[in-house]
Design brief:
Length: 109
């Protein structure tokens, strides 16, 4: 399984390339990899082929939304915001921290 590293400068063009090749969005997953450092893994599929993009982000840094390319990404992006405290720029549907009801704001931050 190959994972392609992306940055804030390349994420949108890489996602656009996958969309133009008819890949569908499978999932977006966030995890903490070090103190104040998070990894966001985007997975796309086309039949039996998969493509993975890894985006590493520091605390306080925002990520661009891909909802203008894959509308259903709004659920993943709101989840990342609510649970990890990572801001997502230009979401199509932003729940403003209200997708999940948690006892603690951004419990995985």
């Amino acid at each position: 399984m190959e994972i392609k590293e992306v940055t804030s400068d390349t994420i949108l063009s890489e996602v656009q390339n996958l969309k133009s090749e008819h890949f569908r969005l499978i999932q977006i997953c966030a995890t903490t990899v070090a103190e104040n450092t998070y990894e966001i893994l985007y997975t796309f599929g086309d039949r039996y082929d998969e493509a993975h993009l890894r985006y590493t982000v520091e605390a306080g840094q925002s990520i661009p939304s891909i909802t203008h390319l894959y509308w259903a990404a709004f659920l993943y992006e709101n989840e990342i915001h609510d649970l990890f405290g990572i801001d997502v720029d230009d979401m199509v549907l932003d729940y403003r921290g209200g997708l999940y009801r948690t006892a603690e704001k951004a419990p995985f931050k």
